[in-house]
Amino acid sequence: MTLTFSEGDVANVLKYEQLIPAMEKALSDFSAGRVIQPVRNLLTIEEGKRFLGIMPAVTQNAMGAKLVCFYPKNAGTGVPTHLAMIMLFEPETGQPLACMDGRLITEMRTAAVSAAVTKYLAPEKSRILTLLGSGVQAEAHMQALRRVCHFEEVRVWSRTPEHAKRFAARHGARAMAIESAVRGADVIVTATSASEPFLKGAWLKPGAHVNAVGSARPTWRELDDEAMQNTVIVDSREAVRKESGDVILSNAPIFAEAGELFAGSKIPERSATTVFKSVGIAVEDITAARLVYDAIESG
């Protein structure tokens, strides 16, 4: 019997303590060629407003596909900008195992991958986290990154200042102007749907680490050319060269995939200023879905 899991079911069992190392292994397998996965097929329904993504992947112990609706037009409404469903199969037999809500999985696996990368690249004794954006991904990244770094201060900026103030009040952060928020920060997260770059490389302190997770469209950007000339890590070379305006339009050289970083085959200088450009790939979703299924099945 195929099981059905709601977002509440997912929330009950999916925890960063297990998800972060699972993402590390999934991306190591991906970069080592042990995952079958095409680049996401993104159907444009209404340019800039409505997209449907199709994301299948097969690993040694998980097989499935995510259908994700990316609807920037929902921003500011009661409906999330990202909505998804994941179908999970047993790879040996093809037996359907479960159909589950994918919104929370998308949220958490994105932040978990950033946390895994940050563990390798953040400056030692990082104490200041800056969040550029104050939505779902900003909150998820704050939670996930606190599993790998001990921050003394959290700063937040939003293109809508009132949103930043509300976020700061909820989470004990400081709402700040963007340049002030970035200067001196050890770890910076960009999590917006911006179409033009707003993070300037000149503001980054030497050795800072940036997790750039927003604006995953070939013509959209969050980081300027100077920021993108630092040491760039990506989740998938093939995917970012198709989907990421930050990489495509800056013609940034890619130092490594995250999976190569985790496997130790590509190691940047610890003092380097680093940028992790994440577009999100299917193996992350299917691995997280298998975690959910196994946890629920085991009680």
Structure, described:
The chain has 2 domains: 3-106 and 282-297, 2-Layer Sandwich (ornithine cyclodeaminase, domain 1), CATH 3.30.1780.10; 120-277, Rossmann fold (3-Layer(aba) Sandwich), CATH 3.40.50.720. It has 11 helices and 14 strands. It has helices at 7-13, 16-31, 103-121, 136-145, 161-171, 178-182, 225-228, 237-243, 245-250, 258-263, 282-297; strands spanning 3-5, 41-46, 50-58, 63-70, 82-89, 96-101, 128-132, 153-157, 174-175, 187-190, 209-212, 231-234, 254-257, 274-277. An 8-stranded parallel β-sheet has the order 9-8-7-10-11-14-12-13. Helix 2 (16-31) packs across helix 3 (103-121), helix 2 (16-31) packs across helix 11 (282-297) and helix 3 (103-121) packs across helix 4.
Concise synopsis of the structure shown:
By secondary structure, the chain is α/β, with parallel strands linked by helices. Helix 3 packs across helix 4. The protein folds into 2 domains: 3-106 and 282-297, ornithine cyclodeaminase, domain 1 (2-Layer Sandwich); 120-277, NAD(P)-binding Rossmann-like Domain (Rossmann fold), CATH 3.40.50.720.
CATH architecture of the largest domain: 3-Layer(aba) Sandwich
Roughly how many Å is the radius of gyration?
18 Å
Q: Considering the protein shown, what is the CATH homologous superfamily of the largest domain? A: NAD(P)-binding Rossmann-like Domain
Please describe the biggest sheet, giving its number of strands, its sense, and whether it closes into a barrel: 8 strands, parallel
Distance between the first and last residues' Cα: 17 Å
> Helix content range of the residues, please?
25-40%
Number of helices: 11
CATH level 3 topology of the largest domain:
Rossmann fold
Strand content: 15-25%
- The assigned structural class equals alpha/beta
Physical arrangement of strands within the biggest beta sheet: 9-8-7-10-11-14-12-13
Tally of strands: 14
Listing every helix as H and every strand as E from the N terminus to the C terminus, the arrangement reads EHHEEEEEHEHEHEHEEHEHHEHEH
CATH classification, class level of the largest domain: Alpha Beta
Shape: globular
